Amino acid sequence: MSLSANNPDRKSWLHVDKNSDFPIQNIPFGVFLTRDDIITIGTRIGDTAIDLGALHQLGYFDDIPLTDDIFLQDTLNDFIADGRKTWRAVRNKIAEIFDDNNDILKQNKKHKEIVLFRLDEIEMQLPVQIGDFTDFYSSIEHATNVGSMFRDPENALLPNWLHIPVGYHGRSSSVIPSGIPVHRPQGQTLPGDATEPVFGPSKLVDFELEMAFITTAANDLGEPIPIDEAEEYIFGLVLLNDWSARDIQKWEYVPLGPFLAKSFASSISPWIVTLDALEPYRVESPKPKTNQLKYLKYKGKKSYDINLEVSIQPQGAKETVVSNSNFKYMYWNMVQQLAHHTVNGCPVNSGDMMGSGTISGPTPESYGSMLELTWKGENPIKMADGSERKFINDNDTVIMRGYCEKEGTRIGFGEVSTKLLPVFKKK
Amino acid sequence: MSLSANNPDRKSWLHVDKNSDFPIQNIPFGVFLTRDDIITIGTRIGDTAIDLGALHQLGYFDDIPLTDDIFLQDTLNDFIADGRKTWRAVRNKIAEIFDDNNDILKQNKKHKEIVLFRLDEIEMQLPVQIGDFTDFYSSIEHATNVGSMFRDPENALLPNWLHIPVGYHGRSSSVIPSGIPVHRPQGQTLPGDATEPVFGPSKLVDFELEMAFITTAANDLGEPIPIDEAEEYIFGLVLLNDWSARDIQKWEYVPLGPFLAKSFASSISPWIVTLDALEPYRVESPKPKTNQLKYLKYKGKKSYDINLEVSIQPQGAKETVVSNSNFKYMYWNMVQQLAHHTVNGCPVNSGDMMGSGTISGPTPESYGSMLELTWKGENPIKMADGSERKFINDNDTVIMRGYCEKEGTRIGFGEVSTKLLPVFKKK
C-alpha cells in the first residue's frame, strides 16, 4: 500500500504553524480525554486534536474494514494489533479527509464541532497499555562514557557490548505520559566510604534521553522474528525520559541489573509517530566495529535522523537547553533490537514498548544524561537563571523534544515534560 | 471477617482423596476453558472443577456484593482488584455451598450438571494477565551457592545481598501455565576460552524452583506500601518454574542483568492458592544476619511452611525426584519484598506477579536448580531410567509440586509440569 499520507506537497485545511511538529504529513496516534470526559483515540494536525472515534461513527472510515469501536477505546492496543495494512489505510484516509482540496468535512460545520478539539480542551493519556517494557543500552557513546567513568577508560566497553544489543526488562506500571509529575524516590544507597547502606531520598536523580518504539503482536512463544521481518512489527515511536536514581542504582544493580533506580517513573510523549511518517528520514546506522552474528545482520537504512533536545526548567524560571543529540547515533538499531529480543522465542505483543537506552552523541553537548553532561557532577551546568545543576533538583521540569526535518517538511514528536516533585509525604 | 473456609473439621459432599492438594479447606482460584469452550473463573475441590461464573449466575453468591460478570472473565484481575474482603467472602461462601451438611446444591442435580466438571473436561489457562513480573533472589542458600561457584566461596554473598531483597524485572509475555511445552532457546554464548561469541541452542537449560505471589492493586505512583500493610495486597501464591539458560545468561548478564536467558519461558501452576488458605502454615522467617533498615522490619510470622519437590521425567520413562525444598527457607519474605519494591513509589497493580527467586535449602538435596544440584554439572544426577542429567535434556518434562500439611489437613498447589522441546524449527 502506498504511503500517500507522506505526500510532502499536501496542505491541510486545518491551520498548521510553520514550525509545527504536526503537519498533515505526520498524523500520529494518541489517546485523549475530551471536554465531554470521553476517552477516545485521536490524531493531531497543527494544534487541533481530532477525535477518530467520532469520525468513524460519522462514517468517514467506512471504506476501511474496521470494527465499530476500534477508536472508542482507552488504549491503542487493538488498533495496533490490526497490523500495518490497517495503520496505513487509516493514515492515508485521514490525510485525504483533512486535505485542503477535500471539502467534505471542511464544509460540514456540525461534524467539525463534534470531531475537532483545541489542545486545551483535551487531556492526553498513556497511548497504550504496555504489556512489557524493555530498555536497551544501544548508544556506544553512552556505554563508553559510563564505562570510562566507573570502570576503565581504556576498556570502557564490556566484552559483550559490541556483540549483543544489551537490554533488560523494565517496569511497565510506572510508565506515565508527559505532564504527570514524579516524586523524588527514596531508597537504599551506600554513602562514600560507608560499609552499611542508609535509607533516604536519592541525591542523584537524573534523566535519560531515549526514544522507544511500540510494537504490534509479532510472534508466538518459541518463534523468533527474523531481522528482515522485524520492521513489520514496529508501529511507531515516542520520546522517553527514563528517569534514573544514580545512587540507588549503584548500590543495587550488581548482579541482576537496575531495579528501583528506574522503576519509580519512565515518562513518554503521548503521540505515537508512526514508522511510516518517519520514512523520509531513514539514514544508515553506524558501521559495525566487529563482525556481527548472522541473526543481527540487516540490509538497508534502518536508522532515523531525529533531532533530540533536552531542557531543564527550574520552577518559575526559563528553561535551559542542556543536550542536543540525535536518534541516528544509536549503534544498534530497532530491527536488531527486535530480532535479538525474540531470538530465544520471547513473544512480543501489541503495545509492548522498547526503549533505545540513553542516546548520547559523539560530542559532550550531545550526551543524553546529566551523569555524562556534568561528568558525575564534576562539571556543573550553568542555567539561564544563574543557578547550577549537577543532577535534577526538586521542582525542576525536564523537557525532551524531537523532530525530523528535510526539504521543508518537519515531523515532530511534541514533547515529554515532567516535573520532579520533592519526596512523597503521606497526608 | 472470619476465615471460616479454613475450618479443619469441615468435609465436602464432593469426593476428596486422602492425599489431595485440594480439600475443601483450600479453595484456590483459577481460569479454565470448559467442555463448552467457555472461559470462566473457577475453583477446585478434590478432582472436581467448579464453574464460579455459572454458580454466580444461578444466584449462589447473591448475598455478596459482586458485579454480574466478575467470574465470567478470562483472567482473575478484576476479582483480585475487588480486595481481600471480597476474596474472603467468596471463599467462605464456597466452603458453605460444598459443605457436606449443606443440601442446597448437593441435592440440585440440574445445577450440579451446570457447575461441576471433571478435570479432563477442562483446560486450565493462565489465571491472571500479568502486568509486571518481578523476580527476587531471596534464598540465602541459592545466592551463596551461586557466589561460591562463580566468585569466591569465602565471600559468596555480594555486599548488598544482606541489606536488599535483590530483585529484577522479568518478562510477562512469556509466563505460561503448566502443560504448555517450551522450546530450547537459541542465543549467543561465549564458549570456553573463545573471545568471540557463537550462536546456537543453549546447552545449559535449567529449571529454577520458585514460588510467586500475585498482588492486588496496592498503591499510586509515588506512594510506598508500608511493610505492616503489605500482606493486605497479596492475593495468593503459585509454583513457578523460572526456566533459565545458564550459558546465555553468563554472556549477557553484565551489567544489566539476565534478559534472554530467562525470557523464553516462565511456567506457573494454574491454581492460585490464597494467602488465607495458607494461614495455618505460617512460620518464622530465618533470623536476619545483619541489622535491616527500618522499612524492611516486620512483626509476626511472615513465612510459610510449604514443602516443595522437583521431578524430571525423561520421555517415556518414570520421573525422578531431584530436589526437596521448602518455601520457609527464604531469607527475605514476601512483605519485605513488597515493601522494598514500592519504597521508591513504584505502583503495584492487580495481577502483578512476584517470584521468590530459586528456593534452595541448607542441604544439597534441597537445592532448587540443576546448576546447584549437580554443582555446575560436576556431579550428574542419576535418573530412575539409568540415564544421567547435568542439566535438562530435550523432551524431558520438569514437574514441580508443593503442599503444606499440619494436623491432618493438606493444602497443596497441584503441579507445574513443562516439557522441554527441541529448538524451534520453522515449518
From TrEMBL, chains A, B:
It is an enzyme of class 3 (hydrolase). Its cofactor is Mg(2+); Ca(2+). Pathway: Amino-acid degradation; L-phenylalanine degradation; acetoacetate and fumarate from L-phenylalanine: step 6/6. GO terms for molecular function: fumarylacetoacetase activity; metal ion binding. Ca(2+) binds at D135, E208, E210, D242. Substrate binds at Y137, R151, Q249, Y253, T358. Its EC number is 3.7.1.2. Pfam families: FAA_hydrolase (PF01557), FAA_hydrolase_N (PF09298). NCBIfam families: fum_ac_acetase. This is fumarylacetoacetase. It comes from Neotamlana sedimentorum.
